[in-house]
Amino acid sequence: MNDRIQIGAAVLMGTLILAFLVARLLPTGRHRAPRTAEETVPLAELLAPREALVTDVAWCPAERAEQVHVFLALGGRVCCSCRGLTPHGALTSVPPAGGAR
User: Fold this and answer.
1) Three-state SS across the chain?
2) Cys-Cys crosslink for 39: which of 16, 24, 35, 87, Cβ 3.0 to 4.6 Å?
3) Is residue 79 one of the residues assigned to a domain?
């Protein structure tokens, strides 16, 4: 019984050493070159709003009056006064010059 324990311990140690060597020799991704200044994007540019298409006067159901709204590319508009969202379909063109209804 003692021989089996010694053989098992030797196999276990060999397996652990082999796994350690493989883990040390495989690339980890640290070998990649750092990005240059031209490749990086400033945080302010990443957080800049890019969805608003146009602002125009439209009916605000929350205030029950015509207010300036920001029309969104994916659909809907946001009132600049009360920040209320009015959902509708995606815009295919800009609102008319006299205001959207």
Assistant:
1) CHHHHHHHHHHHHHHHHHHHHHHHHCCCCCCCCCCCCCCCCCHHHHCCCCCEEEEEEEEECCCCEEEEEEEECCCCEEECCCCCEECCCCCCCCCCCCCEC
2) 35
3) yes
pTM passes above 0.70: no
Asked, for residue 62, whether it belongs to a domain, the answer is yes
Q: Which residue has the tokens 């659909």?
A: 75
Full residue range of the structural domain in which residue 59 is found:
43-86
Give the count of domains, the chain.
1
Token readout for 77 is 């508009």
